[in-house]
Every structure is written in C-alpha cells, then in structure tokens.
Amino acid sequence: MTRGLRLMIFIPSLLILTNLQETSSHGDHPLSRIAIHEATLALTPLAYVEASPSILGLTTGQNSEWVTVEYSTPFPSVDDWIGVFSPANFSASTCPSENPRVYPPLLCSAPIKFQYANYSSPQYKDTGKGSLKLQMINQRSDFSFALFTGGFLNPKLVAVSNKVAFSNPNAPAYPRLAQGKKWDEMTVTWTSGYGISEAEPFVEWGPKGGVPIHSPAGTLTFERSSMCGAPARTVGWRDPGYIHTSFLKELWPNAVYAYKLGHRLFNCTYIWSKEYQFKAPPYPGQDSVQRVVIFGDMGKGEVDGSSEYNDFQPGSLNTTKQLVQDLKNIDIVFHIGDICYANGYLSQWDQFTAQIEPIASSVPYMIASGNHERDWPGTGSFYGNMDSGGECGVLAQTMFYAPTENREKFWYSTGYGMFRFCIADTEHDWREGTEQYKFIEHCLASVDRNKQPWLIFLAHRVLGYSSDFSYAIEGSFEEPMGRESLQKLWQKYKVDIAMFGHVHNYERTCPIYQNICTSKEKHSYKGNLNGTIHVAAGGAGASLSPFTTLQTAWSLYKDYDHGFVKLTAFDHSNLLFEYKKSRDGKVYDSFTISRDYRDILACTVGSCPSTTLAS
C-alpha cells in the first residue's frame, strides 16, 4: 500500500475534531504523561512511517519479534515521538459514545509504548529522517506506528504506518505457573484471544518423556465496566483477551513434567504453544535443598528502551535477567505486590507477563496484592487512594492464580517442602478482630513445625519495621497500625522472617519483638531467635526510596539499590538468607539460622502460656 493511499484511508475517521475534553496527563506512569485526548490532526503529505516486517511470529510459540520503524517528515522537531497503537485503528471511530452532545476526541486510547523520534537517530532534527527498532509482543491484535509532533502535552498526528500483526494474534501465550491448594497440584494460567465460543482450552502434560494427558482449563475475562475508574476505564482500557487456568493434579514429588498450552477449535483443528517444563514440588517436610526467591515492586521494563519517560522501573530488567540466569537454582518465586505498575494502562500486563515468561513458565510465580493493584476509593480497599489507576484488583486477581478462598480477599497460605508461607493482603484490614487477622493466626498456628520448620510471613506494605524516609517522618517506622496487632502473633508462633515490599530499598533488622532486639548476633544465629527478623525487599525494580538519616538500634543492614532475596533451606535445621543486587547477582548481605526442633518448641517471651507454681 502506498503512503498516499494509507493517508486517504486513515483521514476520514479523523475528520471530526472540535472542543476536545480536557484530561490530565499527570501521574507516575510513563503513558500518563501523554495527553492523548488533546491530540490534533496534522497529517503531512510528505511525511511517512513504515514498519517491517508486517507479519510476525511465523514460528509456533513465537510471541515476540523485533520491528524496524522508519519515518520521515519535512518539519522535524526535538519533541517528535513515535507511538505504538494496538489495535491499529486507534482513531475516533473506536471511541465509546458517552455524551452525544460532545464530539469524541481525535484519539481515545493511549499508545502501548512510545519513544522519541531522535532516540537512535541523533541527526533527526536536521534531516527529518529516523528509525527505531522496537520489540513487539503478541497482544491479540494488530499494531500501527504513528509519528507525532508537539511533544506529549500537545500531540499532533503527522503520519501513520502500515499495519503489523502476528500470524495468529489469538495464539496462547505467557504461561504462569502457581501452586494450587494442595501440595501436589500445579496450576497453569495463560492468555489467548480464544473465547469459549471459539475453542476449548486445555493443557497437554505429563512426565517428561512419558505419555501426556489433557486437562481442561477454565476461562475468565472482564469488560471495561469492570474497571473502577480512569485511566483503566478510559484511555488505558484495552481488551484483555481471555485468561485460562488449568489444574494439574496428583503430581509425583520432584518429578519433571512437560506441558503445552492448547486450544481445540470447533472445526477440530488444534492451536499449540511451544513446550515448557516444570519440576513438581517436594512432599511437605521432605528433607532436600529448597530455594525460594522473594521480592516486591519489580514492575516492567522495555528492552528496546521505549516507554521510559520517567525511568520509573530501572531495575526491573536486571532483576529479571538475574533470575533467568539462575533459574536452575530457584524452586519458587514470591512477588509480594506492586506487580507491573500498569496503573490502569492494561496493555502493560501483557508486557509484564511476556517479560517474566522464562521464569513463570518454569517455576511457581506467586503474587501478593499491593496498592498499585488494588487501591481505589469506594471499592472496599483499606486505603482510599487511586494507586491502581482504576484497576481495583481486577487485573491482578484475574491474570494470576493464587490459592485464595476468595479472589477479592487476596490472602492465602502455601507450603513448599520445609517452608510454610503466610501471605497477607495489606490492602484490606489486618487488625485484630478482622477476618484477615483470624486467617493470619490460623495460618501461623496450623503449621507443623516438625515438618515445616521455616515459617515466613509475607505482605506488601511494611507491617513490621522500616527506616524508609516516608515511614520515619510519620514517626512510626512502619505502616501506621502495622505491627501493633500482628507482633504478638509473630512472637507467639515464632515466625522466623517477616518480609515486605512497598518501600523501594533493602533493609534487614535484628530478631526483634516490641522494638527490642532479642539477639546481638548479626550473621550466624543458633537456637531460638526469640524474635522475628524483619526484611524490606521492595527494591526489585521501581525507582528507589531514600532512607531516613535517623539511626535505629534494630536496623542491621540497609541498601539503596535494586535487589532481591533468596532463601535456601538445606535441611530442617539450617537456613541460608541472601540479599543479591540486581546489577550483578552477587551477595551483599547474608545470615544463617541453625537450630533443632526443640528450639522451636522452647518458650520465649510472649510465646508460651502463663504458668503457675502448681504447674
């Protein structure tokens, strides 16, 4: 198709342009900086954008590919930029009709990514010619690339490219493993463009090298009306496709299984993903080396450098890279809130699941709920802010499986061999007397410490201790009302480590109870801790948070850098804790715990019932 013909086709759907509604471009998310509702039409006959190749993903299971975008304009400017739109027709004809008396804006959907026109073409301002290499992932629709001038706040559409599409936009993609409600159950969740009226989703799986079987999958989706506010309900909305989950049951402990995602079309043809594999969990209490990675607030990054207006999640790609490189030494991952920082721009969830696919397709990827997934006024969240961008938990609860009793109440427990994890939901009330408090106590109280001696408490906001500047200025060194109710439970049930995200840094405390260190040791703990070690591990990717200059007696190690935590249980008596930086994967803080079962049984302050002389 010639450039002139493309312009003739595109122009009619862009003719209506008057009294545009004013929208705010403020916010932390890079896409929120673009005032897309303020866009005007400035199509220039001599300007063009061309993208190649036009057909992507010709190999089965290929869900990402690089596209070369070349462009030219006779009137270049330093603030010109390229926006990637999907679906390719992003004009006013696709805008929902909300008020018949007001003309719709020229554009009503945000780009899924963007980059300055001079990013890789420093002579663009002089020559008017440039090119970009952008990595595209399969997002169930076609793409177009648009050249804008006027910067982000006053964008003017100059030229639009040809359409680019994957050979099968509906193909199954981005499998996410998670543990089920039983130790011998693994769930597989993935995304596709096939609804239940078009195809039957299933997983073909079995012992590696053995005879495979088929397990059916359930299918979920949601509508724009499921979103609680803007931008998720407006410029950030994008059709999420269909999210499928299959339950693989009665696994043999430690066995390696191969699996493929499948869709059986009603014409009896099959659509397949590539083959993946995972290792089944150990039997609860099994004495073997078990390795757990824990972090919060990772977010997503773009390997092509796009959408990095505010460099908001600079450590994300490094953390992902380190985990992929060490994957053979990782058994399960916990991402404790602030998952991808989509903040209402739904396309970002696809990009995040694509980024973590090498990890989540191989080991269970368990999540917790954070403020950027859940919080929205008037929706039942404990905090009335707008951090979720109108998602109000729907995306996180649908895109990822967790063994909760109720997806809206995102707290749950899970075990892995010698570990037991109690995962709280800090976006719902956790204080004494609440439903969640009862769950937390039951989770901690019901652990058989003879089989699962390593008891770990996980949550997003810091319910324990933190020297982060934001908490210090409140004078609490914690989420307000955080530990007041819970510390007696941690002490009573002898929680080894309580780990949190939310603050974008790393910090480790001494074993502590009621603001008092219960041990002078710093790196080699033996016997009963007499308290709980608290760790802030929210530095996996998002922009870093500063510490207060105030010195606290309980803080043993702080790091203003991106990183993650790894726990290794060698047996029932020996645990290794390591903090690794994302930039190089090296260990910068560590400690060990060595003890016997009798040490767990022994009484400490607040952990045993009162006695009398008669007893």
Which radius of gyration do the C-alpha atoms yield?
26 Å
Question: Mean pLDDT, rounded to whole units?
Answer: 91
Based on Cα principal axes, name the global outline: globular
> Which range best describes the helical content: under 10%, 10-25%, 25-40%, 40-55%, 55-70% or over 70%?
10-25%
Question: How far apart are the first and last residues' alpha carbons, in Å?
Answer: 91 Å
Number of helices: 11
Q: Structural class, from helix and strand content?
A: mainly beta
Please tally the β strands and state the result: 32
**Could you give a short account of the major beta sheet?**
8 strands, mixed
* Poorly predicted sequence stretches spanning 5 or more consecutive residues: 1-27
Strand composition percent: 25-35%
Task: Give short descriptive properties of this protein.
single chain; 615 residues; mainly beta; 8-stranded mixed beta sheet; 7-stranded antiparallel beta sheet; 12% helix; disordered N terminus; PAPs_N
Question: What's the arrangement of secondary structure elements?
Answer:
Layout: H1 3-10, E1 40-41, E2 48-52, E3 55-56, E4 64-72, E5 81-85, E6 113-116, H2 124-127, E7 129-137, E8 144-149, E9 156-160, E10 165-166, E11 173-179, E12 186-192, E13 199-207, E14 213-220, E15 242-248, E16 256-265, E17 270-279, E18 290-295, H3 316-325, E19 332-336, H4 347-355, H5 357-360, E20 365-368, H6 371-374, H7 394-399, E21 412-416, E22 419-423, H8 435-445, E23 454-459, H9 469-472, H10 483-492, E24 497-500, E25 506-513, E26 516-517, E27 524-526, E28 532-537, E29 555-559, E30 563-569, E31 574-581, E32 587-594, H11 597-601
Parallel strand pairs: 1-9, 3-10, 18-19, 19-20, 22-23, 23-24, 24-28, 27-32
Antiparallel strand pairs: 2-4, 4-7, 5-6, 5-8, 8-9, 11-12, 12-15, 13-14, 13-16, 14-15, 16-17, 18-30, 21-22, 25-26, 25-28, 25-29, 30-31, 31-32
Helix pairs in contact: 8-10
